[in-house]
Amino acid sequence: MNRYLLSVLSISVAAGFGLAVSVPMVSNHAMAQGWQPKKPVELVIMAGKGGGADRLARFIQGIIEKHKFASKPFVPINKGGGSGAEALRYLKDRAGDPHIIMATLNSYYTTPLRNPGLGVDVSKFTPIARMAEDTFQLWVHSDTNIKTVDDYVKAVKSAGAVNWKMGGTGKGQEDSLVTRMLEKKFGIKVTYVPYKGGGTVAKELIGKHINSTVNNPSEQAGFWEAGKSRPLASFTPKGKLSGRFGKIPTFEELGYGSDMVYYMQRSIIAPAGIDREVQAFYVGVFDKVYKSAEWQGYIKKKGLIPGWLTGQALTDYFIAEREAHRGLLKAAGEIK
Amino acid sequence: MEVFALLVDGFVITFEPLNLALVIAGVVVGLFIGAMPGLGSVNGVAILLPMTFLVPPTSAIIFLAAIYYGAMYGGAISSIMLGIPGASTAVATTFDGRPLALKGLADKALVAAATASFVGGTISIVLFTLFALPLAGVALAFGPPETFALMMLAFATFIGLAGDDIPKTLFSIFIGLVFSAVGLDIISGEPRLIFGDITGFYHGINFLVLAIGIYGIGEMLWTIETSQGDVMMSKATVTFQRVFDNLRELRASAKTMIMGSFLGYFVGILPAAGATPGSLMAYGVAKTMAKDPDSFGKGNVDGVVAPEAANNAASTGSMLPMLTLGIPGSPTTAVLLGGMVIWGLEPGPLVFVDHPNFVWGLIASLYVANLFALFINIGFVPVFIWVLKLPFTILAPIIFVLCVIGGYVPTQDMHDVWLMLIFGVAGYLMRKLDYPMAPAVLAIVLGPLAEPALRQSLIGSHGDVMIFFERPISGTIMAVAIILFALPLIKFLNNLRKR
Amino acid sequence: MRIAEFVMALVLAVFSLYLMWKSAELPIGWLPGEGPGGGAFPFWLSLGMLLCCIAIIIRWIARASPPSRSRESFMTLETVKRFALVAGSLTVMIALIHVIGVYGAVPLFLIFYVRFLGRHSWKTTCALAFCTPVAAFFFFEIALKKTLPKGFTEPLFYPLYDIFL
User: Fold this and answer.
1) Using alpha carbons only, what angle is made at residue A278 by residues A272 and A283, rounded to the nearest 5 degrees?
2) Which CATH architecture has domain A138-246?
């Protein structure tokens, strides 16, 4: 009996150890100035696995790992529950903990606004870095005759709200706010169908289950390249996007005013009450990520707008955006 | 034949020494990860993703795909040996795998699972090789109404799982569905069923928490009671002769394997469906087709073969929408997709044109990974049987520890560990009173697929239920589902009349 | 067994009612032009649960289900004792994880279970109590980079991270 036990035990220990050793180890102690993490850093993601925010956070983690920007690994944890409510509360409860940071998106403002019961004030968290702003475009299937925003408005009006389906992410989230902006601007009504994630929304458009979307570039890029979808206009100010996304006209260029602009921020924050040194460490890490060739290449290819911000400027940005979202949510009837 | 030329190129890439080594390493790592209760292929792939930065993208995806495959094989191991499904895809495998193990035939079940996985994997890769692009169109045709119809079909196969006590079976399905609704209502964006305002409920009730609770803790408590002391989990002595005998006996299950493979593959390519409904439906069909349906659930090898062939076929199938549409068919492919983006590859219709080496290297590596997984798995069968020969008072505490860690790891939240304990104790008490638990576990997987699909369809049709019947694909599937639902009812009424 | 069957059905019926009440926080009706509201799915299914419980109770009265006919006791004293020991030690282990972490609670649990419930030798017990956490550490924390809860023992692990990560 004991012979079996011993062999099983030694196999399990050997397997664990073997796996551990086979994993390439990050043991770079060269840059030991200032504060350094003592254990793996939790990189909380405010969204579920596989979505845009998740992919981006894992991409960033990959850059950190590849270039060994930190002496301990950054370990992503998805806490997407309640549109990020869970993640926000988790970070609030971990105030002062130096081994945790969070990758945010716009639910960073909308979720606390919609759930005041959470007791989360996002301006209290420690700002680390804004890595980029993701953009939105209005997309239709390439089989349609809709080539311009004018065509689009006409098509929606003649189809009527009942027959024009706009796909997007959950109600009260980014896509629905952008849709609301469109409806208000052009005096149109659409049927808004919420899906779980932007990737699914993109696919539903290509499968013609919905008529239009307001996807991020990264979600539609593949289909656009393959000639399956068509962007009509970009919700960005003039000249902010470069590459092939720069060729999409903005609503401002088309003469619909400069208010048809909406971004998805991609920032990193830490809990409240961490030491200055700790903050400086994380800002340093993300500064390196931001300047890396991989990140700059990604931003360009995926139609994001570069926009490094840190410190008080980032907190000010968060507060300004939160107030802007308060207005948008009120207009959409999501909050009072 | 252009396809074959491309495939040969792919094999050349796969047989490069680095890639071959990665395939073998990936299969072994995946096998271990998959065999852990609580760790499935999605964890394995997500965790090892950053490591792939050290190698070129083609090698990286080959490594990850091998892990994916290894974990799919490994999932059957804990299902059969411990009765704990490590992932939702392996739930159906427990139905007959566990009874076989309790009869002392764990080796037979393990060999059957490995072989069926191999057949399922191979058939689906051949289908993938030949028809990748046309099938992408099928995936696109599946909108919310079709998805909902498919879920109805999966629920219809539940009927086949029903115990003798219909109210208790229905109760189990309902409670699983209600638990699946906990967390966020994605349509309205409102939090839902947050019991006692506890933050842990925001992420919903994870399938794994319920499965490990019921099958791990609940099952252990049950075994401790029924065994009255120290028992061995398996009396089998394993020789390689026995393994070969087992293999030979499997010829009788060839038809089931092929059925499971095709079914699994086609369900797998549909976005959002993934391998769980596929394996469940394969189990249901195998039971319906069988000459002795009553032996299912009591240790019929076909009950292991069908879901295992299907879940491996489905996992290959779910790579198809990922590669061709950039739409993941399962959580694991969602992470793989993230990997492709990280490596700078644009998944989508053009990936076959722009990166042929990548695609065909991946496809060829799947053939190779499958073969290795089969050999490694069968080679490990004696080791697994050794583990089962440990005294129960040693095995049980280790399983409890694995359950606790397995419940914690996916969300890294102690809330889920407590919840798991509650489910374990409640499941044990309910099981003593003949409440079947498998329907609840499967309902919690299918609920989050079915409910949004239903509501999205109805929003699209402005509340008109006919949308499910008017569209050709969803109408057909719905009709089949309704027939399946009606069958037991007709049987029941017939019995009543006879009485 | 007969009493247990009734009590369980009753408890589950009450639980169904609670779920119905909780689901009703969101609209449970049919929203015009939109289909069912956010609470509808769980509400009507909870109602289904309730109906099932009522059916179970009816069958209990009619003595139609095997447990409602059984004269065996639901749990003998011996079973209750064993159940309480196992489930209790498990609960204590999970509670202790919050305080002394996985690496403190798991060995304690193993020592208790293997030595005092399983009556194995101290040699076997100690080997298990030592090897399981070590294997878990290397497998989960180092290879898979999933940190396990450590309670106040956390700082003790910093040197290990420095060596292995």
Assistant:
1) 95
2) 3-Layer(aba) Sandwich (3.40)
